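In this section we turn from sequence analysis to structure. A common task in structural bioinformatics is to predict how a protein folds when a small molecule is present, because the ligand can shape the pocket around it. The inputs are simple: the amino acid sequence and a SMILES string for the ligand, here adenosine-5'-triphosphate. Study the lines below before reading on.
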Amino acid sequence: MDVQRHFIETSPDSMVSVMSAASLAQNAGFDAAGCQLIATAVSELCNNILKYAIRGQVMVRVLREGKRLGIEIEARDQGPGIQNTELAMTDGVSSGETLGLGLPGVKRMMDEFSLDTSPNGTIVRARKWRSLTSDV
Ligand SMILES: Nc1ncnc2c1ncn2[C@@H]1O[C@H](COP(=O)(O)OP(=O)(O)OP(=O)(O)O)[C@@H](O)[C@H]1O
Ligand SMILES: [Mg+2]
């Protein structure tokens, strides 16, 4: 399966999503470090869903584009949204009294990142690519 969708409402849901993202990335040929980054990104996005939106969905899928292959993560929820996105993307800023490294961390760990948020909810999309030309 190249697409996974998980409803996230409890921490076991989030664990299932993280583990299956890691194995999807592994099957797509990402190295251990790449799989770890992708799993961590999913974990951060699940944590945010649980903490700020109560529940949501995480979709992870494999992308094929010419000589590269990617993993796309899409986390969406219908929570309260993020009022100040610039602030939310700043290291060390948290409304939840934790480290505030989640969203900026996801942006750093992945190659592409987008944040789409309104009072009706939040969608975070992130992609990580690997080159197919190094495959034998
Ligand atoms: N899905 C979401 N819905 C509403 N607000 C969110 C959501 N995700 C993040 N936020 C807001 O953006 C801020 C920054 O998120 P980020 O994940 O970077 O830090 P954090 O969750 O506060 O701390 P950490 O991830 O380090 O535990 C949060 O404090 C919260 O106010
Ligand atoms: Mg967070």
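The mean pLDDT is 95. As an exercise, try to locate the residues that line the adenosine-5'-triphosphate site and compare them with your own expectations.
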